[in-house]
Predict the structure.
Amino acid sequence: KARRLGLSWRFRAYALWLAITQQGVRVLILCKTEGDASELLDRIRRMRDRLAADPLSAHILDGLQAKKARDHVTALDIGTSTIKALVGTPAAARSETAGLVLLDEFAFQRGAGEIWRAILPTVEGGGRLGVVSTGNGGPGYGTTTSPNGGTVVKVGASTSYGTSVIFEWVGPEQ
């Protein structure tokens, strides 16, 4: 994707909306670094806080109190839903059964192929998946290469509202 299209913000807003409207859902966001994960969760937290502070929107959060509310660096509880932001590793991808997995700057995550394989059971089990990344120099239009150079991901995306992101794994021989 090109920079500055607002896709990352849309995915964050979608994660918050899902956590609010589908109580009990677990959202897992995998980022390049711990700093990125912390910043991403802070942005979602600020979105939630803006909703709570706005008299016209505050009702959206009414009645969403968690039994044990967590609000720390890697997890944010919204009612009975949880949003977790972690460094992208295969172990982190397997750690949660999530209703939504967001892969932030996925083309730059180490072990992208292993992470992908680790989240497949969640997706095949009905979980949603969002992938957001700028390219990192893969050959051809709309492709990204994982940092280890072993796999190429072909990405089709649209900036139009309501369209989906389509991607498929292509081996290095292609």
User: Anything to note?
Assistant: Confidence is low (pLDDT under 50) at residues 138-174.
